[in-house]
Amino acid sequence: MKSKAIFLDIDGTILPSNQILSPKVKYAIEQARTNGHYVFLCTGRNYCNISSFSNVEFEGMVCSNGAYIIINNQVIYDISIPEDDLENCLKFLDENDIEYNLETNFVSFYSQSMIDFFEQYSKSDVSELNRLKEETVNHIQHIQNYQQQVPVPTLFFLCQDEKYIQQIKQKISKHCYMINHGFNQGYYTVEINHVDATKGKGIKRVIEQLNMSIEDTICFGDGMNDYDMMKTCHRSVAMGNTCEEIKQYASAVCESVDDDGVYYELKRLEII
To answer: Among the four 125, 157, 190, 222, which has the fewest Cβ within 10 Å?
Structure first.
């Protein structure tokens, strides 16, 4: 079989609620690479928040929704939110007491109230609690430690009123784009990245570096930030646990993350 480039989202795709990579999915990743395929993480997480995979090897990572890309331990792409856009957003968020965090490549800056919110939210979402604990120990700093002009690939914020989302859209230029993850637990969760930082564009950059065709790509995902890569890859697989909106853009729907969907789909495709 011709080599394929396989792109895997993390949360809700290969990591279930307990934040532990299952033996079957770990085997699938390793066996796909043994069989001559290229396996990449493709995630909204920033680079420093991928420590869960220290015992698994990949060809590379598309981090921060495509803002930071590594192939074979070499950074091939690194782009951040333009300073003027970031400044405008932070001014608006501060003026309206909207909680946010700044995710750079090597540290995340959280306000105490943001951490408190996630701890409260995580009482009904074990995966978020586990992830937050992991990040807090390793690489979270208080927002007061953030220094201007430090590059920020991702701005993440929470709000209860959708009007704020529309108002922030008016604050950012054509150089940024926004992903609204929807309304859950009383809050809208929203990410802002540079317009050239999407999972789909990140995948195209990887394929170009590997001198491969987009026809040789497979992706797995479950969230709204996976929409772009679903449109980009030749074969796009939605997890069984994802929303109907994402499923309609996928080539196929596999089992849920808790049922090792990635493992079973790669077997059906004879990748492993």
So the answer is: 125
Q: Do 132 and 227 fall within a single domain? A: no
Q: Are 8 and 39 in contact (CB under 8 A)?
A: yes
Locate 260 and state its tokens: 């090792």
pLDDT at 123 over 60: no
172 and 91 housed in the same domain:
yes
Give the best-scoring range by mean pLDDT among 32-41, 181-190, 236-245.
Answer: 32-41
Write down which residue in 194, 227, 245 finishes a domain: 194
How confident is the model over 141-177, as pLDDT tens digits?
A: 888 888 877 899 999 999 999 999 999 999 899 999 9
Beta partners for residue 70, in sequence order: 61, 75
pLDDT at 134: 54
> Are residue 40 and residue 170 in the same domain, yes or no?
no
Query: Domain containing 104: what range?
Result: 83-194
CA-CA-CA-CA torsion sign (271, 2, 232, 33): positive
At which of 147, 162, 194 does a domain end?
A: 194
Q: Which residue has the tokens 């951490």?
A: 115
Return the CATH number at 218: 3.40.50.1000
For residue 108, give the H/E element and its range. strand 108-110
Query: Which residues lie across from 101 on neighbouring strands?
Result: 110, 156
Q: How far is Cα 144 from Cα 140, in angstroms, rounded to an integer? A: 12
CA dihedral 68, 71, 72, 74 (to 10 degrees): -50
